[in-house]
Amino acid sequence: MRRRLPSLARQMIDSLFHIPSSVFHPTALVGNNAVVRVHERDGNHMNGMKNIDFLRSAAVMLCKLALVAGLFHAAQVRADPVVIEFRGDSTGLGIDGKLLSQNAADIRVVAQPPQAFIHLAGVVIRNVSVSGESTATMLNGHFSGHPWEQAAQGDCADIVIFNYGINDSLTLDEKTYADNLETLIRISRDNNLEVFLQTPNPSRLTKVANYAQIMRDIARKHDINLIDVHQYLSARIPSGQLRNFMPDGIHPNQEGYALIGEFMQGRLRDLLLRRNLIALTRGDAHAVLRDGVWHGRFSYGRRPALGKAANSCQKRQT
Hints:
Elements: H1 7-17, E1 37-39, E2 45-47, H2 51-76, E3 82-88, H3 90-93, H4 97-102, E4 123-127, H5 135-140, H6 148-151, E5 159-163, H7 166-171, H8 174-190, E6 194-198, H9 208-221, E7 225-227, H10 229-236, H11 254-274, E8 288-290, E9 293-295
Parallel strand pairs: 3-4, 3-5, 5-6, 6-7
Antiparallel strand pairs: 1-2, 8-9
Helix pairs in contact: 1-2, 8-9
């Protein structure tokens, strides 16, 4: 049984080739004596030109078909913004480690927290991180007043990034941390929220590396996309220079947050491209991957709908 083309495809082919797509049936190509036959509805046919004239016509047809394929790909990319919700602790919020190293009571956010370095057209980033948050307080709603099982029901994000581990290493054993992560994942998926996991940044707290590994293992187990900040910074920053980027040994300074944000930009870009949630345009040919971060001029195939605020979306229907 011959599969019928979608109406949009038929219209495109009709306009490009000036031939009704319902009667267009090319025969196989056989060397220089190849013939293209376009069969009429009444059974008659027209013989195509041979040799060079045919090859020239065939090349034009292939170019036009490539254009149609490109239009189909662009049509598959989402038209509305992708809403990404970033849920983490003080390091996700952007608390300045430089100020804390000078005065532990001076708790302020840097001028450019991680999300300030994420520039993806068609993507809305909502940073709802809370200083002191952990998987336990996230689940029981200690800071928000709403347990995650309740809050997730009304959450309007497309993707939720969980970035916990530092406070957990101080308050929870490893098994409880792992169980809590799996509970966060289950509740989120039950409410049509896609989960990404982001490992905590390196720290003077010795257990954090173990908790980052637990997150990697859980991401692998549940087939979850991972933004491995811990691994990236550990490889990027020589061990003796950690405090140049995290002066108090835990919280990054502005330079540290810039590294994290730029890494998130590149990783999110790749993950969203794979999911067809954003599309490349010609300008992206100038981008290059260096040290795990994309550098260069970026442009994408769509932009956020005008007037759509980050906090104005509605819960999607399943």
